[in-house]
Amino acid sequence: MNTKNIAGISLAVMGAGFAATLALPDSIWTELAKGGFEAGLVGGFADWFAVTALFRHPMGIPIPHTSLLLRNRDKIVNALVSAMENELLNKESISAKLKKLQLLRLAATGATRLLARRDVRIALLDYAQKLIARTEPERLVPHIRPILASFVRQAELREPLARAADAVIDGRYDERAFDYLLNEAQNWVRKPGTQYLLGRLALDKLNEAQVGGFLGFAVQAFAGFMNEDKLGGLLQHMIVTALEDLGKDDNVYRHSIVMGIRERMHALADNEELHARWKAWAENAVAGETFERFAVGRLNEAKEWLIGWTEAEKRNGGKAVFRAYRALRRFIDRDPAMIEAWESNLRDYATRLVEQNHYRIGRLVKENVDRMDDKTLVAMLERKVGKDLQWIRVNGALCGFVIGLVLTALQIAW
Predict the structure, then answer these.
(1) Is residue 97 exposed (0-12), middle (13-18) or buried (19+ Cβ within 10 Å)?
(2) What is d(CA 258, CA 264) in angstroms, rounded to the nearest whole number?
(3) Averaged pLDDT, 360-388
């Protein structure tokens, strides 16, 4: 039963009881009952007046010092705001509570529970698929281009090039490349047509040579004695033999060439002028139309692949999503110091956020209360605290009845 009805019934019972005792014959029991009901009626009515006076004028009569909540609306609101800001939700208590929380661990636990559910994983993939489908690569390129251009301008090439040169030397990739070129050169020299080509080129150069005296006579005699096949075969054999010797690890000339290549690679790492030209070339390439066509094409390919992958993963229940999350958790859990540093930074950020915005709590409460008219505010307060206040009326009637019985009994006995 509604407490307001119970309070009304208690007051009505006291009034009916008092009226009934007026019609009863005089006796000790009648006097006791009359005293009890009379005091209960007074107590119940007084408490009704007190409770009603909190919210409105009793019976609509503007009696002084009634409708206390509305008359002191601003004081009550300010007191409520002050209590929330300084007592219930003060900055110190919130900050202290935040410092005890393991925010990342709570978030990780919640994420694990969510991602363990198939419907959540599929919903994430579906959302990602729709987001990817709406993406237009043509609109992404203008945003990618300045990022790449800035990266090119600010890139420091010396250290990466030096590390690359060291990696090439440590892996002996320079020697492997040199051996590849030697093999390709030998294969070309050994071709049948190369013999005639070498002989023809050598004879043409001998005939063009302007050498006088005995040396000139010897050169002309040698050229006249040779033909393309003979001279070409001789040169072919010499070149092949020389290339084979360069392929041997203990060859002095090979060692000298490889060392020259390595010195040149290290020189590239220190050549600031060359770095500037490379950067200028790369920046111009990023700004050109060729890069835009290339980037749009690659982004479209990536877009189609991602849409297909998400569709396949949805059919598979999104297991890849949970595997990726689990791998990330394992990677992070291997470094407790990093986790603690993140926790500390997150707690510090949350604490600063609370300190900077704490005043908004009181402002929000005040704004919400100010938007209510008097009728709405009174109705809200009665819903929240009226139930307990109505019990004051019931207790007042009952206590008054008991006290009335005691006082009447004392009068009779006296």
Answers:
(1) exposed
(2) 10
(3) 67
What is the per-residue pLDDT across 266-291, written as a single tens digit (0 to 9) for each? 888 888 888 888 888 888 888 888 88
Tell me: pLDDT of 409 over 70. Answer: yes
Question: Distances in Å between the alpha carbon of 269 and those of 156, 157, 202, 259, 263?
Answer: 10, 7, 40, 16, 10
CA distances from 52 to 4, 374, 392 (A): 11, 15, 11
Which residue intervals of 190-334 are DSSP H helices? 192-208, 213-225, 228-246, 252-270, 272-287, 289-315, 319-333
More confident residue, 356 or 307: 307
Spell out the residues 6+ positions from residue 136 whose beta carbon is closer than 8 angstroms to its own: none
Rounded CA gap, 285 and 257, in Å? 34
Whether the Cβ atoms of residue 287 and residue 145 lie closer than 8 Å to each other: yes
Tokens of 140: 């992404």
Distance separating alpha carbons of residues 41 and 44, to the nearest angstrom: 5
3-state helix, strand, coil in the chain (%, to 5): 85, 0, 15
Distance CA 282, CA 276 (A): 10
List the structure tokens of 331.
Answer: 């990677």
Name the nearest CA neighbour of 144 among 294, 303, 305, 308. Answer: 294
Residue that is written with structure tokens 């990696």 in the block: 167
Burial of 322: CB neighbours in 10 Å, binned 0-12, 13-18, 19+: middle
Can you give the pTM of this predicted structure? 0.47
Give the C-alpha separation, 242 to 251, whole Å. Answer: 10
